[in-house]
Design brief:
alpha+beta; 235 residues; 23% strand; five-stranded mixed sheet; three-stranded antiparallel sheet
């Protein structure tokens, strides 16, 4: 039911693909009545606020398996007695396929998760608050190799791109804030919390205790700023 904007005939892999782009009008911007925070780590995405939050598993483990398959082939055939593999197109294509597969898994996960979060925000009439992760690459150098590799493959900035894209598409406002202290500051009294278990923190002042991802979500949602108070519906 939408008009065509562009049509392209693409030759790829011995096949012809006709790509048609539709011109779809943007959704009307919402007037946010609340805010939800989005916290990202290598194993799960947590979004919500102090009232309710949702956890979404990432696809990093599946992507890492394909990356390991590619690196295993590269290590095996990089020995001097296997130098002829450079001329073996089948092995090269196999390695390229594994790397491409790992990237596509993360790309598809990031897009689908962003759509889910943005649609939830639109139904809840909520502003999305996410962390600014542009300086993440510099901080990754201090992490262990396995942890650093997982974060790089996950592509935090790519996930942020899809959140912003889908937010603009569906009329949901996005606010980007600094990630400093979001997962270690007590959302009740503002005191720095201490770790009492795996990814679990406790405030020494007020006694508040919670998972660090949930703490980050609550703090991010509170950073949404002053939102307009909804008016009562007329009788």
């Amino acid at each position: 039911e939408y008009p065509n904007r562009e049509a392209r005939l693409v030759y790829r892999g011995g096949e012809l693909w006709l790509k048609i782009v539709k011109q779809i009008p943007k959704s009307q911007p919402i007037q946010p009545k609340t805010a939800i925070g989005v916290d990202v780590n290598e194993h799960k995405i947590v979004f919500g606020n102090a009232q309710v939050h949702t956890e979404v598993s990432t696809s990093i483990d599946k992507a890492l398996r394909y990356r390991e398959l590619a690196e295993r082939l590269q290590r095996k055939y990089s020995r001097p007695n296997y130098m002829q593999w450079l001329s073996n197109r089948r092995i090269l294509n196999r390695i390229k396929h594994f790397h491409t597969r790992a990237r596509n898994i993360i790309e598809d996960w990031a897009r689908r998760t962003a759509v889910r979060i943005v649609k939830h925000a639109r139904e809840s009439q909520a502003l999305i608050v996410r962390e600014d992760l542009t300086g993440l690459i510099e901080s990754l150098r201090k992490l262990p190799r396995n942890h650093r590799t997982a974060l790089i493959i996950l592509g935090y900035r790519r996930f942020g791109y899809w959140i912003d894209w889908e937010g603009q598409k569906h009329g949901v406002p996005i606010k980007v804030v600094s990630p400093k202290g979001t997962s270690t500051k007590c959302p009740v009294c503002g005191t720095k919390m201490i770790e009492i278990g795996y990814r679990r923190l406790k405030c020494t002042k007020c006694g508040f205790e919670e998972d660090r991802d949930v703490i980050a979500v609550i703090n991010l949602s509170k950073m949404g700023g002053a939102l307009p108070t909804p008016t009562a519906r007329p009788m």
